[in-house]
Amino acid sequence: MRDLKLKACQIRQGVLQLIHEAKTGHIGGDMSVTDILVDLYYKQMNVSPEGMQDPDRDRFVLSKGHSVEALYTILADKGFFPKDELKTYSQYGSKFIGHPNNKINGIEMNTGSLGHGLSVGVGMAMAGKMDKRDYRVYVVMGDGEMAEGSVWEAIMAAGHYKLDNITAFVDRNRLQISGTTEQVMSQDSQEQRWASFGWNVLSIPGNDMEAIDAAVQLSKETKGKPTVIIANTTKGCGVSFMENQAGWHHRVPTDEEFAQGMKELKEKEAAL
Amino acid sequence: MSNIANKQAICNVLLKASETDKDIVVLCSDSRGSASMTEFAKQRPEQFVEVGIAEQNLVSISAGLAVCGKKAFAVSPASFLSTRSMEQAKVDAAYSKTNVTLIGISGGVSYGALGMTHHSANDIATMASIPNMRVYLPSDHLQTEKLIEALLQDKLPSYVRVGRNAVEPVYEEGNVPFTMDKATTVCDGNDVAIIACGEMVKPAKDAAAILAKDGIKARVIDMYCLKPLDSEAILKAAKETKVIVTVEEHSPFGGLGSMVAQVVAANEPKRVINLSLPDEPVVTGKSAEVFKHYGLDAEGIAKKVKELV
After folding, report:
1. Would you identify the CATH topology of the domain B184-308?
2. According to CATH, what is the number of the domain B4-167?
3. In chain A, what are the domain boundaries?
4. Interface pTM (ipTM) of the complex?
5. Residue A38's pLDDT is what?
6. Share above pLDDT 70 across residues of chain A, in percent, rounded to a whole number
7. Average pLDDT, rounded, for chain B
8. What residues form DSSP beta bridges with B158?
9. Which residue of A has its CA nearest to B56?
10. Hey, where are the domains in chain B?
11. pLDDT by residue (tens digit) across A84-111?
12. What CATH number should be reported for the domain whose range is A2-271?
């Protein structure tokens, strides 16, 4: 677990650097979702740079595609593409656009428009059942995204077909671009909503590596229904002045803020 | 020859192909009956997915299946498939370039008196405007069979619109000229070129027979491939005939007429007259009544051509 926590700290530094250099990105959501992605990519998921054609690999869909900087940083770190290529992020002609792009090794599906990923994941999970393969599908969504009606079509279908080979995450950081989710569109009864569609619901502190890992493990062992992990996270997690600030949804740090953020993250890393 | 609905031809081809190809998956949105897919669902339950009345989910699930190696056929009324789930078509089918074939059933004004909500007179425009998306409107069941067989051979996304009703065949059993993405010349002539798609090809062919009696030689081109459009056939017609008339069961904007005019204007300027549905909710009536009302039947097309040549 210490290794995973160290990794999460390093990935956050990578994200901060990437966004600072490119002068664009959705940093708040990157920071809230980092621990989930680290647990999936460094422990739980069976995916590798060489294995992207393996029909038995686990499938991952970042439905909240705007958190792509965290995903790119992890994929680069894992060797899905040369780290240098990431320097072109958001630059003229680059394939590293501001949302996941399946021209990049490691990315299964293009996302960006919210409310698509879970439906795509349902299709992937159905294909797994049809072909009797034991891969698992992981879909990470945002809590603001839960206002999209199509998400509920997917939740309904996964419950109906009892797709126990899918694990969904809701990155419940309680903030979206205009303010708190409760101001914009109330999401407070997430647990009851999913449960009423036949899902196994796990609610956890979403930046707690032990809790994330245990929940994913539990989801793998749950039979007869799909699992959603409501990850109660902190937007901007890891950098004090970004935490719980809607303004940091996609603000770009100044040089001073960058230095301060890196200092904080390095201190956290050293303390682990 | 008996009249068979194009959608029935699709079911027949998929049923046959899925005897050996277990990657074919048909998805419906509470539409298996109207899609003529009941038989497929019955015979291939393990290759059939019901998603309920949820077109957005229909298309995205299809893409998820496709990215895992399936050949997904999402079959749903054209009106809903081409508008409500247009974004899923754009992102999950086209942009992600997945092996999804969207089958828009009961296209155009097939639903007749059910009205504007159920008509799809803008699906060519919406679907053709999406990068990576191909658009096909086959004319009869024989051509539909050829098209679906061809689509099974590649892994690219496409949209196919078919009508609800059984239509008289344009071609003859055993004699169906078909080259993928190339228009078919139904009959030749150099006075006028009538370029039609979908269910408008048969009345265009019949119009040519009427015109022949008056000594007007019409070339009828079946432009089932709206995208990629067969520009070569259009330019050849523009060079060799005096005037071009396009006929489509679609809005006057962004459909066959617009596309043909664009090609002709840029390369071989000539008059292009577009016969289409009007830019308004159409008159109440069965397909045949609606076509007659707007001059999209054989007589209406012939009358228009006579005015022009």
Report:
1. Rossmann fold (3.40.50)
2. 3.40.50.970
3. 2-271
4. 0.96
5. 98
6. 100
7. 97
8. B101, B134
9. A150
10. 4-167, 184-308
11. 999 999 999 999 999 999 999 999 999 9
12. 3.40.50.970
